[in-house]
Amino acid sequence: MSSITILAIESSCDETSAAICRDGRILSNITASQSVHEKYGGVVPELASRAHMQHIVPVVDQALQAAGVQRSGLNAVAFTQAPGLIGSLLVGAQFAKSMSLALDIPLISVHHMQAHVLANLIEEPRPSFPFLCLTVSGGHTQIVLCESPMSMKIIGETMDDAAGEAFDKSAKLLGLPYPGGPLIDKYAKQGDPERFKFPEPQIPGLDFSFSGLKTAILYFLQEHTNNNPRFIEENLADICASVQHRIITILMNKLKKAAIQTRIRDICIAGGVSANSGLRAALETMGRSFHWNTYIPAFQYCTDNAGMIAITGYYKYLAGDFAPLTVSPSARAEW
Ligand code: KG4
Ligand code: ZN
Known about the structure:
Layout: E1 5-10, E2 15-22, E3 25-33, H1 45-67, E4 76-82, H2 86-103, E5 107-111, H3 112-118, E6 131-136, E7 141-148, E8 151-157, H4 163-173, H5 181-188, H6 211-227, H7 231-262, E9 266-270, H8 277-290, E10 293-295, H9 306-319
Parallel strand pairs: 1-4, 4-5, 6-9, 9-10
Antiparallel strand pairs: 1-2, 2-3, 6-7, 7-8
The protein binds 5'-O-[(R)-(carboxyoxy)(hydroxy)phosphoryl]adenosine and zinc ion.
């Protein structure tokens, strides 16, 4: 079979990303982040759509150039169809459809959360099937049982906030700018994770809950800053370390339970929060004690990126799973 070259586009939230993949190998992965949201404490959908409009052509051109690929050399175009901010998704979808039409090549629609899982297949070492993936991002927290690139099911998920939201909302309460997750990670490195005890919710099965933690942190900060207005600045590292520690134990305890229940020992993490150094270390430590084979995508494939859309698009191409030009994006999506 001759080689298959795919252009992939990701625009579900606030990153405009384009990647080129040839025969399952990522040749380029270019991402433009949007700093415009920082001062608002969260992503402003209207501003995100406008920024995607500005970034998409240069980002795609850069991805083609970095890969040394001409538009005429593309065999298919893949894009994130769901879930995400509808205005953001529409920009990527419309662009991908136009490319598909203009170049007369197939269109492939990709589910963003499935792509986060398959980011683990981009580089060596790759997990063997079936594997479990803890997908932790700003919008989702899921434990996914992946039987093949085209067959996966959610066996546990959050009932309220996502893990990334728990990081970002805690950071906001501490007066840190958006997105606060990476900053909590940074300050936590100098702090004592056992100094402050935050509650672990008792949720049955493999599901998660993070909303109680956010409320507990709010009351904790109110109480302490009433007594000492400088409490946060004086204890920032210990608060960050303690918050991060609790989020990680909530995640890891459920992942351990899932591994025991399914008897699966190939365990991956994915999504923006998998960039967290504490979570990465916790996975390795637990992996050693339970004899798991553990996998974490390279940093550029953890947060939102088109490389993961490209690899998913490649497997869909092999399966002949193409989308009609009438396909439209969706903010929410069932699997
Ligand atoms: O997967 P992602 O890039 O976008 C979504 O699909 O949501 O994840 C973004 C989330 C944000 O909540 C961000 O704060 C969090 O990932 N994040 C982190 C770290 N890096 C990104 N959270 C904790 N520690 C990090 N190092
Ligand atoms: Zn994501």
